[in-house]
Amino acid sequence: MKLRVKDIGFGTLIRGPVSGQNAHASHILLRRRMLDFFGCVIGGRCSGYMNFKSVCEFVRLKSLGISLALIAALAAFAVASRNDKISPVTISLVLGVLAANTNLLTQGSKPGIDFAARKLLRLGVILLGFRLALGDLQKIGSIKGLLAAALVVVAAFVGITLLGRAMKLSGSLSLLVATGYSICGVSAIAAVRPLTAADEEEVAYAIGLVTLFGSLSMLLYPIIGDPILSLSAEQFGWWTGAAVHDVAQVVATSSSNGDLALEVAVVVKLARVVLLAPLVLAISLCQRGSVNSEITNRPPVVPLFVILFVAAVVLRSTNLLPSTLIDVINSFRSWLFAMAMFAVGSSVRLKSMFSMGGRPLVLGAVAWIGLASFALLIARVVV
Protein backbone atom coordinates (compact mmCIF):
# COMPACT_ATOMS: atom_id res chain seq x y z
CA MET A 1 0.00 0.00 0.00
CA LYS A 2 1.35 3.42 -0.90
CA LEU A 3 2.29 5.47 2.14
CA ARG A 4 0.52 8.82 2.54
CA VAL A 5 1.92 11.66 4.60
CA LYS A 6 -1.32 12.19 6.44
CA ASP A 7 -1.11 8.63 7.80
CA ILE A 8 1.88 9.68 9.94
CA GLY A 9 1.16 11.52 13.18
CA PHE A 10 3.33 13.29 15.70
CA GLY A 11 3.95 9.96 17.38
CA THR A 12 5.98 8.82 14.38
CA LEU A 13 8.11 11.96 14.64
CA ILE A 14 9.08 11.42 18.28
CA ARG A 15 9.49 7.67 18.54
CA GLY A 16 13.04 7.68 17.21
CA PRO A 17 14.87 7.10 13.94
CA VAL A 18 12.95 5.80 10.96
CA SER A 19 14.26 4.86 7.56
CA GLY A 20 13.34 4.77 3.93
CA GLN A 21 9.90 5.92 2.90
CA ASN A 22 8.79 6.53 6.51
CA ALA A 23 11.72 8.87 7.18
CA HIS A 24 11.06 10.84 3.99
CA ALA A 25 7.36 11.19 4.78
CA SER A 26 8.15 12.21 8.37
CA HIS A 27 10.46 14.97 7.20
CA ILE A 28 7.81 16.28 4.82
CA LEU A 29 5.19 16.33 7.56
CA LEU A 30 7.55 18.04 10.02
CA ARG A 31 8.36 20.79 7.50
CA ARG A 32 4.67 21.33 6.78
CA ARG A 33 3.75 21.56 10.45
CA MET A 34 6.60 23.97 11.15
CA LEU A 35 5.43 26.17 8.27
CA ASP A 36 1.89 25.94 9.58
CA PHE A 37 3.05 27.08 13.03
CA PHE A 38 4.84 30.15 11.68
CA GLY A 39 1.85 30.85 9.48
CA CYS A 40 -0.34 30.89 12.59
CA VAL A 41 1.96 33.32 14.43
CA ILE A 42 2.63 35.72 11.55
CA GLY A 43 -0.51 35.43 9.47
CA GLY A 44 -2.97 34.88 12.29
CA ARG A 45 -4.52 31.74 10.84
CA CYS A 46 -3.67 28.14 10.10
CA SER A 47 -4.28 26.69 6.65
CA GLY A 48 -2.66 23.26 6.85
CA TYR A 49 0.68 24.43 5.50
CA MET A 50 2.08 27.36 3.54
CA ASN A 51 2.72 26.13 0.00
CA PHE A 52 4.57 27.88 -2.78
CA LYS A 53 1.34 29.25 -4.23
CA SER A 54 0.37 30.98 -0.96
CA VAL A 55 3.83 32.55 -0.71
CA CYS A 56 3.55 33.90 -4.25
CA GLU A 57 0.10 35.27 -3.45
CA PHE A 58 1.46 36.99 -0.34
CA VAL A 59 4.25 38.60 -2.36
CA ARG A 60 1.87 39.68 -5.12
CA LEU A 61 -0.58 41.34 -2.74
CA LYS A 62 1.64 42.82 -0.08
CA SER A 63 5.10 43.44 -1.54
CA LEU A 64 4.30 46.95 -2.83
CA GLY A 65 3.00 48.27 0.49
CA ILE A 66 5.76 46.63 2.52
CA SER A 67 8.37 48.02 0.12
CA LEU A 68 6.97 51.54 0.52
CA ALA A 69 7.11 51.17 4.30
CA LEU A 70 10.72 49.99 4.07
CA ILE A 71 11.68 52.93 1.83
CA ALA A 72 10.03 55.32 4.32
CA ALA A 73 11.96 53.68 7.17
CA LEU A 74 15.23 54.09 5.26
CA ALA A 75 14.48 57.77 4.72
CA ALA A 76 13.49 58.20 8.37
CA PHE A 77 16.71 56.67 9.67
CA ALA A 78 18.73 58.78 7.22
CA VAL A 79 17.13 61.97 8.51
CA ALA A 80 17.39 60.89 12.15
CA SER A 81 21.10 60.17 11.72
CA ARG A 82 21.65 63.90 11.09
CA ASN A 83 19.71 64.95 14.20
CA ASP A 84 19.63 62.62 17.20
CA LYS A 85 16.80 64.61 18.78
CA ILE A 86 14.36 63.34 16.15
CA SER A 87 13.10 59.78 16.38
CA PRO A 88 12.98 57.79 13.11
CA VAL A 89 9.63 56.42 14.27
CA THR A 90 8.20 59.95 14.43
CA ILE A 91 9.62 60.78 10.99
CA SER A 92 8.08 57.62 9.53
CA LEU A 93 4.73 58.57 11.03
CA VAL A 94 4.88 62.04 9.46
CA LEU A 95 5.88 60.56 6.10
CA GLY A 96 2.89 58.24 6.25
CA VAL A 97 0.49 61.10 6.98
CA LEU A 98 1.94 63.14 4.12
CA ALA A 99 1.77 60.22 1.70
CA ALA A 100 -1.84 59.47 2.59
CA ASN A 101 -3.07 63.05 2.33
CA THR A 102 -1.29 63.87 -0.93
CA ASN A 103 -2.68 60.81 -2.74
CA LEU A 104 0.74 59.21 -3.21
CA LEU A 105 -0.47 55.77 -2.13
CA THR A 106 -2.29 53.57 -4.62
CA GLN A 107 -4.98 51.02 -3.87
CA GLY A 108 -2.51 48.27 -4.72
CA SER A 109 -0.34 49.22 -1.77
CA LYS A 110 -3.16 48.88 0.76
CA PRO A 111 -2.75 45.14 1.61
CA GLY A 112 0.96 45.58 2.33
CA ILE A 113 0.36 48.79 4.28
CA ASP A 114 -2.27 47.03 6.40
CA PHE A 115 0.14 44.15 7.00
CA ALA A 116 2.83 46.55 8.20
CA ALA A 117 0.41 48.45 10.45
CA ARG A 118 -0.86 45.28 12.12
CA LYS A 119 1.57 42.37 11.88
CA LEU A 120 4.89 44.21 11.80
CA LEU A 121 3.80 46.46 14.65
CA ARG A 122 2.79 43.49 16.79
CA LEU A 123 6.03 41.69 15.97
CA GLY A 124 7.88 44.82 17.06
CA VAL A 125 5.99 44.87 20.36
CA ILE A 126 6.87 41.21 20.92
CA LEU A 127 10.55 41.94 20.28
CA LEU A 128 10.38 44.89 22.67
CA GLY A 129 9.91 42.29 25.39
CA PHE A 130 13.53 41.22 24.89
CA ARG A 131 14.61 44.69 26.01
CA LEU A 132 12.76 44.36 29.31
CA ALA A 133 13.18 42.12 32.34
CA LEU A 134 10.79 41.37 35.17
CA GLY A 135 12.76 43.77 37.35
CA ASP A 136 11.85 46.57 34.95
CA LEU A 137 8.34 46.60 36.42
CA GLN A 138 9.84 49.09 38.85
CA LYS A 139 9.74 51.58 35.97
CA ILE A 140 5.97 51.75 36.30
CA GLY A 141 5.90 51.48 40.07
CA SER A 142 5.67 47.68 40.29
CA ILE A 143 2.36 46.48 41.74
CA LYS A 144 1.35 50.01 42.66
CA GLY A 145 1.81 51.05 39.04
CA LEU A 146 -0.24 48.15 37.70
CA LEU A 147 -3.06 48.93 40.15
CA ALA A 148 -2.88 52.57 39.10
CA ALA A 149 -3.20 51.53 35.43
CA ALA A 150 -6.27 49.47 36.35
CA LEU A 151 -7.70 52.50 38.17
CA VAL A 152 -7.30 54.61 35.03
CA VAL A 153 -9.11 51.97 32.96
CA VAL A 154 -12.03 51.64 35.39
CA ALA A 155 -12.39 55.41 35.88
CA ALA A 156 -12.27 56.07 32.13
CA PHE A 157 -14.75 53.32 31.28
CA VAL A 158 -17.31 54.27 33.93
CA GLY A 159 -16.89 58.02 33.43
CA ILE A 160 -17.22 57.97 29.62
CA THR A 161 -20.20 55.60 29.75
CA LEU A 162 -22.05 57.84 32.21
CA LEU A 163 -21.08 60.99 30.27
CA GLY A 164 -22.45 59.55 27.03
CA ARG A 165 -25.76 58.67 28.63
CA ALA A 166 -25.97 62.09 30.28
CA MET A 167 -25.58 63.59 26.79
CA LYS A 168 -28.56 61.48 25.62
CA LEU A 169 -26.44 59.28 23.38
CA SER A 170 -27.36 55.64 22.96
CA GLY A 171 -26.08 53.15 25.48
CA SER A 172 -24.37 51.15 22.72
CA LEU A 173 -22.41 54.13 21.38
CA SER A 174 -21.42 55.22 24.88
CA LEU A 175 -20.24 51.69 25.66
CA LEU A 176 -18.17 51.41 22.48
CA VAL A 177 -16.49 54.79 22.97
CA ALA A 178 -15.79 54.04 26.64
CA THR A 179 -14.23 50.69 25.76
CA GLY A 180 -12.12 52.09 22.93
CA TYR A 181 -10.79 54.96 25.03
CA SER A 182 -10.12 52.98 28.20
CA ILE A 183 -8.59 49.78 26.78
CA CYS A 184 -7.04 49.58 23.31
CA GLY A 185 -8.90 51.54 20.69
CA VAL A 186 -10.36 49.80 17.64
CA SER A 187 -9.42 46.29 18.86
CA ALA A 188 -11.45 46.77 22.04
CA ILE A 189 -14.38 48.15 20.05
CA ALA A 190 -14.28 45.05 17.83
CA ALA A 191 -14.24 42.77 20.88
CA VAL A 192 -17.20 44.45 22.57
CA ARG A 193 -19.35 45.20 19.54
CA PRO A 194 -21.00 41.71 19.38
CA LEU A 195 -22.22 42.28 22.95
CA THR A 196 -24.12 45.45 22.02
CA ALA A 197 -26.98 46.45 19.75
CA ALA A 198 -24.82 49.05 17.99
CA ASP A 199 -25.54 49.70 14.31
CA GLU A 200 -22.93 50.44 11.63
CA GLU A 201 -23.15 54.20 12.10
CA GLU A 202 -22.48 53.96 15.83
CA VAL A 203 -19.52 51.65 15.25
CA ALA A 204 -18.16 54.08 12.65
CA TYR A 205 -18.54 56.99 15.09
CA ALA A 206 -16.71 55.11 17.85
CA ILE A 207 -13.85 54.11 15.55
CA GLY A 208 -13.71 57.63 14.14
CA LEU A 209 -13.41 59.18 17.60
CA VAL A 210 -10.62 56.78 18.61
CA THR A 211 -8.76 57.54 15.37
CA LEU A 212 -9.27 61.30 15.56
CA PHE A 213 -8.24 61.89 19.16
CA GLY A 214 -5.58 59.20 19.09
CA SER A 215 -4.03 61.00 16.12
CA LEU A 216 -4.21 64.30 18.00
CA SER A 217 -2.43 62.61 20.91
CA MET A 218 0.41 61.55 18.62
CA LEU A 219 0.80 65.16 17.50
CA LEU A 220 0.27 67.05 20.76
CA TYR A 221 1.65 64.86 23.57
CA PRO A 222 5.30 65.19 22.44
CA ILE A 223 4.87 68.96 22.12
CA ILE A 224 3.52 69.51 25.63
CA GLY A 225 5.01 66.55 27.52
CA ASP A 226 8.57 67.75 28.14
CA PRO A 227 8.67 71.43 27.11
CA ILE A 228 5.45 72.50 28.89
CA LEU A 229 4.67 69.88 31.55
CA SER A 230 8.34 69.13 32.31
CA LEU A 231 7.74 65.38 32.47
CA SER A 232 10.62 62.96 32.87
CA ALA A 233 10.97 60.12 30.37
CA GLU A 234 9.35 57.69 32.83
CA GLN A 235 6.46 60.05 33.54
CA PHE A 236 5.90 60.75 29.86
CA GLY A 237 5.89 57.02 29.10
CA TRP A 238 3.47 56.29 31.93
CA TRP A 239 1.18 59.14 30.86
CA THR A 240 1.21 58.01 27.23
CA GLY A 241 0.66 54.35 28.05
CA ALA A 242 -2.24 55.16 30.38
CA ALA A 243 -4.02 57.76 28.25
CA VAL A 244 -3.47 57.10 24.52
CA HIS A 245 -5.97 54.71 22.98
CA ASP A 246 -4.37 52.32 20.50
CA VAL A 247 -1.14 50.32 20.83
CA ALA A 248 0.22 51.79 17.60
CA GLN A 249 -0.59 55.31 18.77
CA VAL A 250 1.18 54.64 22.08
CA VAL A 251 4.31 53.43 20.30
CA ALA A 252 4.33 56.44 17.97
CA THR A 253 3.75 58.96 20.76
CA SER A 254 6.17 57.59 23.36
CA SER A 255 8.98 56.95 20.88
CA SER A 256 9.43 60.70 20.48
CA ASN A 257 10.88 60.79 24.02
CA GLY A 258 13.38 57.95 23.70
CA ASP A 259 13.58 54.23 24.44
CA LEU A 260 12.96 54.55 28.18
CA ALA A 261 9.64 56.34 27.61
CA LEU A 262 8.75 53.72 24.99
CA GLU A 263 9.45 50.82 27.37
CA VAL A 264 7.37 52.28 30.20
CA ALA A 265 4.54 53.22 27.82
CA VAL A 266 4.31 49.74 26.29
CA VAL A 267 4.29 47.99 29.69
CA VAL A 268 1.51 50.28 30.97
CA LYS A 269 -0.41 49.98 27.71
CA LEU A 270 -0.26 46.19 27.67
CA ALA A 271 -1.43 46.16 31.27
CA ARG A 272 -4.52 47.98 29.99
CA VAL A 273 -4.88 45.53 27.08
CA VAL A 274 -4.89 42.54 29.45
CA LEU A 275 -7.84 44.11 31.26
CA LEU A 276 -9.91 43.65 28.10
CA ALA A 277 -10.62 40.06 29.16
CA PRO A 278 -12.34 40.81 32.50
CA LEU A 279 -14.05 43.86 30.95
CA VAL A 280 -15.61 41.81 28.14
CA LEU A 281 -16.69 39.19 30.67
CA ALA A 282 -18.31 41.85 32.87
CA ILE A 283 -20.11 43.44 29.91
CA SER A 284 -21.26 40.01 28.74
CA LEU A 285 -22.78 39.25 32.14
CA CYS A 286 -24.47 42.65 32.28
CA GLN A 287 -25.78 42.39 28.72
CA ARG A 288 -26.96 38.79 28.99
CA GLY A 289 -30.39 38.48 27.46
CA SER A 290 -30.43 42.06 26.16
CA VAL A 291 -28.95 41.29 22.72
CA ASN A 292 -30.51 38.59 20.60
CA SER A 293 -27.93 38.51 17.82
CA GLU A 294 -25.61 35.53 17.76
CA ILE A 295 -21.99 36.30 18.60
CA THR A 296 -19.64 35.05 15.91
CA ASN A 297 -16.01 35.60 15.00
CA ARG A 298 -15.22 37.30 18.30
CA PRO A 299 -11.54 38.24 18.56
CA PRO A 300 -9.51 36.81 21.46
CA VAL A 301 -9.82 38.82 24.67
CA VAL A 302 -6.06 38.45 25.28
CA PRO A 303 -4.25 38.86 21.93
CA LEU A 304 -1.50 36.42 21.03
CA PHE A 305 1.09 39.19 20.70
CA VAL A 306 0.52 40.19 24.34
CA ILE A 307 1.19 36.61 25.47
CA LEU A 308 4.34 36.45 23.33
CA PHE A 309 5.48 39.83 24.69
CA VAL A 310 5.24 38.47 28.24
CA ALA A 311 7.08 35.30 27.15
CA ALA A 312 9.88 37.46 25.69
CA VAL A 313 10.17 39.40 28.96
CA VAL A 314 10.42 36.15 30.93
CA LEU A 315 13.05 34.78 28.56
CA ARG A 316 15.04 38.02 28.79
CA SER A 317 14.88 37.83 32.58
CA THR A 318 16.69 34.48 32.58
CA ASN A 319 19.88 36.18 31.30
CA LEU A 320 20.43 33.28 28.91
CA LEU A 321 20.54 35.46 25.80
CA PRO A 322 23.90 36.98 24.81
CA SER A 323 24.12 40.76 24.67
CA THR A 324 25.02 40.69 20.98
CA LEU A 325 21.77 38.90 20.17
CA ILE A 326 19.82 41.42 22.26
CA ASP A 327 21.46 44.24 20.28
CA VAL A 328 20.46 42.62 16.98
CA ILE A 329 16.88 42.14 18.18
CA ASN A 330 16.66 45.76 19.33
CA SER A 331 17.95 47.02 15.99
CA PHE A 332 15.48 44.85 14.08
CA ARG A 333 12.68 46.04 16.37
CA SER A 334 13.51 49.67 15.60
CA TRP A 335 13.20 49.01 11.87
CA LEU A 336 9.89 47.18 12.36
CA PHE A 337 8.50 50.11 14.35
CA ALA A 338 9.65 52.60 11.71
CA MET A 339 7.95 50.62 8.94
CA ALA A 340 4.81 50.12 11.02
CA MET A 341 4.54 53.82 11.89
CA PHE A 342 4.60 54.78 8.21
CA ALA A 343 1.66 52.42 7.74
CA VAL A 344 -0.13 53.82 10.79
CA GLY A 345 0.38 57.37 9.53
CA SER A 346 -1.02 56.43 6.14
CA SER A 347 -4.36 55.62 7.78
CA VAL A 348 -4.79 59.21 9.01
CA ARG A 349 -7.05 61.26 6.75
CA LEU A 350 -6.87 64.87 7.88
CA LYS A 351 -10.02 65.84 6.00
CA SER A 352 -12.21 63.15 7.53
CA MET A 353 -10.72 63.67 10.98
CA PHE A 354 -12.46 67.01 11.34
CA SER A 355 -15.63 66.16 9.43
CA MET A 356 -17.45 64.60 12.40
CA GLY A 357 -19.89 66.79 14.22
CA GLY A 358 -22.57 66.79 16.87
CA ARG A 359 -22.74 65.23 20.29
CA PRO A 360 -20.46 62.25 19.56
CA LEU A 361 -17.64 64.67 18.74
CA VAL A 362 -18.27 66.57 21.99
CA LEU A 363 -18.23 63.27 23.90
CA GLY A 364 -14.94 62.31 22.26
CA ALA A 365 -13.32 65.67 23.03
CA VAL A 366 -14.42 65.81 26.66
CA ALA A 367 -13.45 62.18 27.24
CA TRP A 368 -10.05 62.75 25.61
CA ILE A 369 -9.26 65.75 27.80
CA GLY A 370 -10.59 64.05 30.93
CA LEU A 371 -8.62 60.84 30.36
CA ALA A 372 -5.42 62.75 29.60
CA SER A 373 -5.81 64.87 32.73
CA PHE A 374 -6.55 61.94 35.04
CA ALA A 375 -3.72 59.82 33.59
CA LEU A 376 -1.32 62.74 33.98
CA LEU A 377 -2.28 63.11 37.64
CA ILE A 378 -1.75 59.38 38.26
CA ALA A 379 1.58 59.44 36.37
CA ARG A 380 2.93 62.19 38.63
CA VAL A 381 1.87 60.22 41.72
CA VAL A 382 3.18 56.82 40.63
CA VAL A 383 6.50 57.77 39.00
Radius of gyration: 22 Å
| Amino- and carboxy-terminal Cα gap | 70 Å
The poorly predicted ranges are: 1-19, 40-49, 291-297
CATH architecture of the largest domain: Up-down Bundle
For the biggest sheet, the summary is:
none
- CATH C-level class of the largest domain is Mainly Alpha
Strand content: under 5%
| Mass-distribution shape | globular
CATH level 3 topology of the largest domain: Na+/H+ antiporter like fold
Instruction: Give helix % range.
Output: over 70%
Short note summarizing the structure:
This protein is an all-alpha fold.
Question: Would you kindly provide a written description of the structure presented here, covering whatever features stand out?
Answer:
With 383 residues, the protein is an all-alpha fold. It is built from 17 helices and no strands. The chain folds into two domains: 5-50, no CATH class; 74-382, Na+/H+ antiporter like fold (Up-down Bundle). The chain has helices at residues 10-14, 20-43, 52-80, 88-101, 110-128, 142-166, 171-182, 186-192, 200-225, 233-243, 247-255, 259-274, 276-287, 304-317, 323-345, 350-353, 359-382. The chain is globular and about 55 Å long. 43% of the residues are buried. Mean pLDDT is 78; it is low at 1-19, 40-49 and 291-297.
Question: What are the defining features of this structure?
Answer:
single chain, 0% strand, globular, mainly alpha, 17 helices, Na+/H+ antiporter like fold, 383 residues, disordered N terminus
